[in-house]
Each structure stands twice: as C-alpha cells, then as structure tokens.
Amino acid sequence: MELLKNLKWRYATKKFDTTKKVSSDDLEKLKEAVQLSVSSYGLQLYKVLIIENIEIREQLKPVSWNQSQITDSSHLFVFCNYIDVSDNAIDDFIKQTAEIRGLDLERLNGYGDFIKTKLAEKSQEEKTSWLKSQIYIALGNLLNACAELKIDACPMEGFEPEAYNKILNLEAQGLNAVVIAPVGYRHQEDHTIGAKKVRKPFNLLFQEI
C-alpha cells in the first residue's frame, strides 16, 4: 500500500530548503486534492489562501512565533473558515449541484431547506466549531497529497489568527484563519530528518468491538 509508505516518509518539516520551489504542475495537483475533500453536506464552507509572495510572508512570520517555515517554504497554505453560514451559500451549493448533475432545481430545494434548518439549530459556538472542523479534513488531504508527491509540509496552529485576519484582510471577506501549512522541500540540515515516528501502538489506539 503506497499510502502507508508515503505516510511513513512524511514528517512535520521544521527546516525548508529555500532554493527549491514546488512546480506549478504539482501545485495544481495539491489544489485538486484539497478541492476533492469531503465536507459536511458537501458545502466546503472554507477558503484556502496559497501565499508565495515573500513580502507578505515576512509580515506573517512575527505573528507565527517567528517560525522559519513561514518564509523558507515554497508556499504557505492558509486554511480559513467562513465566519458564518449564509442562506445564499446553501442556495449556491444547491444550484451548483443541480447544474453539475443535470437535476431539476425544484427537486433539490427541499434538501437545501433541510440543511438550513439543521444549521439554524446550532448555537453560534457550535456552528463555529463545526465550521473549523471541516477544514482539518481538507488539511489531511493536502498532507497526504504532499506525501505522495514527495513534497514536505508542516501543519501548524502556532500562529495568531487575529493577526493573520488583519494582515490578510480576511474579516472583510467574512473569513477567519484556522490552520496553516507551509509546503516545500526539506533542508538536509533539518534536525528532525530521520527521527523515528512516535505513535500509539495499535492495542492502545484501537478497540475492536
């Protein structure tokens, strides 16, 4: 199983090689992997910023605990959830579904109303947690795709979301930064290269019933 080999190969890269860049072809593959991620109701209520501009990343570094991955990587993925769920977003999803699958829009309106009803039952705190949770599925797909392409990545929560929101003007777009992932290629001086993975053994991690 190649996936297992790839997962054993990857690790959270701490030092990137600044001389190596992810190709445009590989970047498109990473984007498609994220695009194909599953999400609750299929809504994908998030946006992913892919930042290559070094000047912007220099601004983000101090509010990312001054971690070198922010500026040394090839690209920085910033996963953002929409702050709230609008009825328009659900209507757009239903319309898109009808168009892509060649279905009568009227047949799908009931499903759209069902989604709106279920989300209206959530408190704002529950809704915020739900919106953020969807992002981590997409992040997982990014990491797996990187591993298959032998591209290094480092998922990170060590940053100040409020500062990212301000620097990247996210709130004006109704967005909130949740998690980031620099991608690129490991530097041979990265002290964590070759470190054995520390994972729970099967007997502690799984329970078969």
TrEMBL record:
Keyword Membrane assigned: no
Cofactor(s) listed in the protein's UniProt record: FMN
Top-level taxon of origin: Bacteria
Instruction: Tell me if Ligase is a UniProt keyword of this record.
Output: no
Residue intervals of the Nitroreductase domain: 7-185
Signal sequence residues:
none
* InterPro entries in the cross-refs: NfsB-like, Nitroreductase, Nitroreductase-like
Q: For this UniProt record, give its keywords in alphabetical order, as a comma-separated list.
A: Flavoprotein, FMN, NADP, Oxidoreductase
Gene Ontology MF: a single term: oxidoreductase activity
Sequence similarity: Belongs to the nitroreductase family.
Q: Which PANTHER family match?
A: NAD(P)H NITROREDUCTASE YDGI-RELATED, NITROREDUCTASE
**Name the UniProt record assigns to this protein:** NAD(P)H-dependent oxidoreductase
Species = Yeosuana aromativorans
Q: What is the lineage of its organism?
A: Bacteria, Pseudomonadati, Bacteroidota, Flavobacteriia, Flavobacteriales
